[in-house]
Amino acid sequence: MYSHWARFAVFVFCLTAPLSIAIAESDTGKNNPANLVGHGGPIKAIAISGDGKTVLTGSFDYSAILWQLDNTTTNKLARRYSEHEGAINTVTFIGQNSRFLSAGDDGGVYLWDRASDNLLMQFKGHQAKVLSLAVSDDGKLAASASWDRTVRLWDLDNLKPLAILKGHKGPVNAVLISGAGQQVYSGSYDGSIIKWSVKTGRQERPLYLHGWGINVMKWLPGKQQILFGTVNGDVQIFDLKADSIAKVLIPHQRPVLALAVSGDGKFLASGGGDGLIRVWNTADWSVVEELNLSFGPVWSMVFSADNKKIYYTGLDDYAVAWKISPRKIGQEVQGKFPRRFQKLQNMSLGERQFARKCSICHTLKAGDQNRAGPSLFKIFGRPAGTLKGYKYSPGLLKSKIVWNEKTIDQLFAIGPQHVTPGSKMPLQKISEKNKRQALIRFLKANTQ
């Protein structure tokens, strides 16, 4: 049912950008103390607390991380949360930042308590990945947007599900809640922004119909204007009172994947599959900064509390702190290209299978950190679920499998859902026997 949208997502993930404005070529990102380094895979989501002292990130490595910001020297990894069973696509703080939400490919909406570091609730109900979360100003209501074409509402006080908002004809990519908490606004791949009543759980009316899919939405201060980005690269502002488009900004050449609005509303930024970040001054709508990452895409970004930095995320395993005021040309960084999971022309058949199927989740060598999955160092002969330091799913902890040529071949021949049911492994197969054998040869040569 969702194969079309899945193909689109993979297409965007592998985009490269055209001509650059400020090109970042060095691989110094992990050595910059201002960057947020600690994830084992590309970071898909980022949010900043209301006081500007804490950042929350969510990654393809299935984990969320809280960071304590130090504006003078380094940023500190404060806590890692690894209970997700899929990539994390969206995170948001709640109220006075004592709680937060995360959601992603496993379809669950996770509610966390910062004081105890406990998972308070995993809300279930979505039948596909969740792309966006919103919370009411009073912290009592949450909304989640999913590729199952619905928005679901959640009671954060009583920890129970509320209405299911149905009406979109395509995956729902973005959701917002009004200032008073009485309306919900959702944006979909079907090109529409719909207004919903929280009280009735019903559609009030289609607010706006764009010719292309809506990818992302943000409130401007006052919550009377919606900033949105689209599949064809448009960046526009819809005014609720005027019931019309109030501003059309310079479009991107490829899909807009990220938007950010500074806390005081003086600046906004757009980021796309073209790798371009564009920063606007909302007083006169002038472009004050542009950065082209050259290898794209930009998944998410936030302004620092003082508007001097933008923390952005892309294909690297860390979030980059881009200093925009005062701008220092050449200080932007980006990791090596192509990334480990992107195709290289000089790869052997086995290495190519590893890059495509395994590398985003697994490492190979002794001392390598775990990613979404455990390190594969000395995988042959290892009983499943036994590597120290990795939090396995119940399915693998109960498994009696010992990894060898036969069991690894079976894993990719019939799929993890049959070999390791209940595990966090992505549902993927390698149908061609020669490719499976090549992968096994590569693993044996590189994991001992």
From TrEMBL:
Any Pfam family hit: WD40
InterPro entries on file: Cyt_c-like_dom, Cyt_c-like_dom_sf, Cyt_c_1A/1B, WD40/YVTN_repeat-like_dom_sf, WD40_PAC1, WD40_repeat_CS, WD40_repeat_dom_sf, WD40_rpt
Residues making up the signal peptide according to the UniProt record: none
Domain Cytochrome c: 345-447
Record's keyword terms, sorted: Electron transport, Heme, Iron, Metal-binding, Repeat, Transport, WD repeat
The keyword Transport belongs to this UniProt entry's keyword annotation: yes
MF terms in GO: electron transfer activity; heme binding; metal ion binding
Coiled-coil regions listed: none
PANTHER family: WD REPEAT DOMAIN 5B (PTHR22847:SF637), WD40 REPEAT PROTEIN (PTHR22847)
Name used for this protein in its record: Cytochrome c domain-containing protein
Species of the source: hydrothermal vent metagenome
